Amino acid sequence: MECKLKQEVTVIPELAKIFLPVDAFDSIDIHCLSRDFKKEYSTSEKVDDFLTFCKSKMTDELSNKVSGCTSDQKDNPLWRRLRYLRITASNLYAVAHCKTMDGSLIEILHGEKLRETSAMARGIRLEPQVLEVVSNKLTISFERCGLMIHPNHPIFGASPDGINKDFTVEIKCPSNDKSYFDFIDAAATSNKEQKQIVQWKSVDET
């Protein structure tokens, strides 16, 4: 199985990037799964049938392969492709509380890119430095990992910032007091962060 995917940068819409030659990852590409499901189950519109179909195409080997092939995350076209239409840890809270049929969440799931703010750019810049500090402080090493897809529930995925056999790390770099308290409460993480942690743990334990 190959990790190879076209690396060149293009200006074509995000949606068009999924129409690539058939490869080993088609079986877990949500767009391809939707297409194949309609071919095989043309009369079914049940979500449970689609989820069962997705599970039938997933293997532990493929899940591990994806994680290894996408360790550079946002810089990797395969990572972006397999996040398309997939419920990830970062959008789980929004999905769970969504009450509209369209809007910004749907745009994000369809690959709409968020405008990078100065705070986001700062977080991206600081992330490897923070991971190194945490590693040194705890005297343990963390591996970078890519998109981790749940083998039994492949509609879900997560991309933590670091991982080892005991810990999963997600780095937040609040740029002001308000954003700090948005993510960190004096006693516990926020409801949004708890959902994100639950999904990382769920995927990591498979």
TrEMBL record:
Top-level taxon in the UniProt lineage: Eukaryota
Endpoints of the signal sequence: none
Gene3D superfamilies in the record: 3.90.320.10
Nucleotide-binding keyword on record: no
UniProtKB keywords: Endonuclease, Exonuclease, Hydrolase, Nuclease
InterPro entries found in the cross-reference section: PDDEXK-like_dom_sf, Restrct_endonuc-II-like, Viral_alk_exo
A Pfam family assignment: Viral_alk_exo
KW Cell wall biogenesis/degradation (keyword) present: no
A GO BP entry: DNA repair
GO molecular function, one term: endonuclease activity
Protein name: YqaJ viral recombinase domain-containing protein
